[in-house]
Design goal:
Blueprint (H helix, E strand, L loop, with lengths): L27 E6 L5 E7 L7 E6 L7 H12 L4 E4 L3 H4 L11 H5 L3 H16 L6 E7 L1 H9 L9 E5 L24 E6 L7 H14 L3 E6 L15 H15 L1
Length: 255
């Protein structure tokens, strides 16, 4: 199960919070245009001081909702300009959606190529921000897979990619799996997984690790013992330590 509609991202560890001058502003909801002319929703949060590494946030199967708007704000608080994108501009239009949004039919009509095209628009928007010299993707669940695939997309020009519990051997896209794309990945890759995630088997992670190693891709794959799928949620007090560690690893990786 992916994030519940009322989920919220974990707070930054206290020692990683920046001085008030560097705190990020509230996220702005906006529309971006994809290469095929599609308009899609996005949320942009900017730090008070220019940030060197921008972050494109790739959500779970629900697309853009409050969790990812707040997550963009958390990255801005840490000094990183961030844009979270929605996947469903082509099939569901733009604008905010409620808890009753039936996302699965839209997920089934969404392709990796479309996600990469929309991500490209977000990358371009971030590169237009003052002081942004590098851009990374950070994805979750469905978006985690898309983040790994984005690392293999030379057209995006990413500097690095992060995936939280992204499926590695999807039955829907058997010919397009992260391990199969390892040879085309150009930047460092960070993967974060729950040890109790029933949808991602240890052997899947091992095969991905072996493929990245064989391709010479700088990478780190971290498994949190006992943590379930979508553990990165501040409601889950039992996994607060894993959340804090994940924040530390991601921010260190981006810097």
């Amino acid at each position: 199960m992916c994030f519940a509609y009322d989920s919220r991202p974990p707070a930054l560890p206290a020692d990683l919070a920046l001085p008030p001058l560097a705190g990020g502003a509230a996220a702005e909801l906006l529309e971006l245009g994809s290469g095929d002319g599609t308009r899609f929703s996005a949320a942009r949060a900017l730090p008070a001081a220019p940030g060197a590494c921008g972050v494109v946030i790739l959500p779970d199967v629900r697309g853009l909702y409050r969790f990812y708007v707040e997550l963009a704000e958390r990255f801005a608080e840490a000094g990183h300009p961030a844009i979270a994108i929605d996947y469903f501009g082509r099939t569901a239009g733009v604008g905010e959606r409620g808890e009753d949004f039936e996302f699965w039919p839209h997920v089934m009509e969404t392709t990796p190529a479309q996600v990469q095209a929309d991500a490209a628009a977000a990358v371009a928007a971030l590169r237009a921000e003052p002081g942004v010299h590098r851009v990374a993707t950070v994805g979750f669940c469905f978006g985690g897979t898309q983040s790994f695939l984005a690392a293999a997309n030379a057209g995006l020009g990413l500097d690095r990619a992060v995936g939280f519990y992204g499926s590695l051997e999807s039955e829907r896209f058997p010919g397009l799996r992260p391990a199969q794309e390892a040879g085309r990945m150009s930047g460092p890759v960070l993967g974060l997984f729950g040890g109790a995630d029933e949808g991602i088997a240890p052997e899947h992670i091992a095969r991905f690790d072996e493929a990245l190693e064989a391709a010479g891709v700088d990478h780190e794959l971290v498994i949190y013992p006992g943590a379930p799928h979508s553990f990165f949620d501040r409601r889950f007090d039992d996994y607060a330590e894993a959340c804090a560690d994940a924040w530390r690893r991601v921010l260190a990786f981006l810097s």
